[in-house]
Amino acid sequence: MADPNVLRDPESCVRQTTATEYKASEMADIITTASPEQFSSSTSHKDDPNPLLDTVRRLLPRPIEKRGVAIYGWLQGPEAPRLYKISPFLPRIQQLPLRLVDTVCPRQWQRAFALLVFYVCWIATFAAVLRKSAVAGDVSGYGEPIRLQCGGVFWVENNDCGLNGTYCLPFSDSSFAFRCPANCLSEEVQNPRAVGAQEVIYEPLVVGGPTSDGQHDYTYRGDSFICSAAIHAGIITNSGGGCGVVSLTGQQSSYPSVSRNGISSIAFDSSFPQSFTFKATDVSCKDLSWDLLAVSVVYTALLSLFTKSASVFFYSTVIGCYLQAALATDTPEYASIATLVSSAIGKLLPALLISMFMYRLYIRRTLHGLNAQVEKTVLWLGPCWVAVLADYTFELIPLERLTAHDIKQQPGGLASLIVIVVVLLFIFFAQAWSFRQEGRLLRYIALYICLGITIGLLAAIPQEELRLHHYILGLLLLPGTSLQTRPSLVFQGILVGLFINGVAKWGFDAILQTAAELQGDALDGSLLPSITAINATISNITFTWPGVPMGWNGTSVLVNDVERHRDYSSSQTERSFTWQRMVAEEPEYFRFGFFALSAAYGLEMGDYTMGGTWLANGSWIQMAAGAT
């Protein structure tokens, strides 16, 4: 009968070889512990001839040479390198699942069949819960709910709806059933957004809400996040998402600020041409992302406990975590389940190819031969899941992206970066000491010097911005975890999880991106109109400003955040604009910005000024300095 250990772990079929049979250059690939005697004849590298080193030594002054040789010798590590191997705590308890497998499935074909049945059960359970989560019944009178993203809106910012909001029609008399995913409270405005004279950032954009305690008396401004507003109104929940009916109700005045269900809405004391309200439904369409997460965590934990094969554990975990993130907890924007599945499968294949290299080069050394089943599950798989759910678990870290703009703009961003760098330095020195003990420090120093030079050269490319995405960070730092130590299990699990999270949600974005790609809806620092004279009465107001500067073709005027005037003129002469008050006894807010027109690029809008206020009594409050 075959050796049970061989049957349990296909990788253990490799011929067992003593350390003395390996060349010195191959010793770093042995995962078993070796005694100093075994290393004495094969790994003594202190006196190995090195022509390049000898040449450098001859060129250096004697004191510097002696110090350099001493440092080089220390970096090479001890004469008899120590290869780390985790000795399990309470080994009999930790290896109980493996002994159970030996007893129930003593033959290799039995284990292969049991693994196949396990995979079938996993896929069937995951698919059943995913289907139940994705499919919702028809809402009476409205049909199947339309799936919205957390940031879905009727009215887009600044002048993107066109003059008088033409591109965002209809304003009223339209209703449909909708469906929102879970966790929409995390959807926030990432760049300054104007609401009248106010500026909103790093919070959900919800303007208005219930004007009384009545359950149906809530109205929201048209540019509010629909799903966040539905949570605010109590139509759906943040934890489970849900369905409802939304109706456009046209112009509304005086949107109140109300704190409900974890959201403090924004007040707006003037009119807006588009508003909406909600109506609850009896259709159950709860987002089961967290139920799917429970399924994925349980199956990966069982696999971790009951298999000794490093490759089976690693590849199964990568696929399971990836599908959980890509199809449930960290999905990209999608129009239907079919497009979501197509996108996920398209990114899975290259992710698996990269995972193969990750495993062969770095991860195999950490996981191969590790029979501390509980420690592997807790220290490697647990942190991996924490990083896969980075959008939730790292949400409290006030740093959205590792870009200079975000670090400066986001409150606490610089402090968070400093803390992260300090922690990484501490981990670096701890890992470097372990690599030195194994006699592998120099090669990893050389590797990271090459990586640093490469990143520096990339950062120096003109008109490009360096962007270290989640998956790139995981790949860059992963080599530093190629040790079988308990800290390395934790660090490696986190980095693999970051890789999975980044690919699942954002795909393989380039390490270099243009400023326009990174800018999104952020300010671009363009010129702003300078309002030089204001003639205001109770019923009308007139603005004047100098001519349009070179490079621009006209001026856009927003009134209450709606584009009401577009002056097509590149003349250097003074320009003016007169506005008649729309609703008596209400303040109105004005913002001004230049635009450019070209046959190649169409309409290109610059930044707008901050909002100035025309009070109901006819007086004018000048806009503050700055752009929106």
From TrEMBL:
Q: Which SMART domains match?
A: LCCL
Record keywords: Membrane, Transmembrane, Transmembrane helix
A Pfam entry, by short name: LCCL
Q: Which SUPFAM superfamilies match?
A: LCCL domain (SSF69848)
Q: Where are the transmembrane segments?
A: 112-130, 288-305, 334-357, 378-394, 414-434, 441-461
All copies of domain LCCL, residue ranges: 180-267
Q: What is this protein called?
A: LCCL domain-containing protein
Q: What PROSITE patterns would the database entry show?
A: LCCL
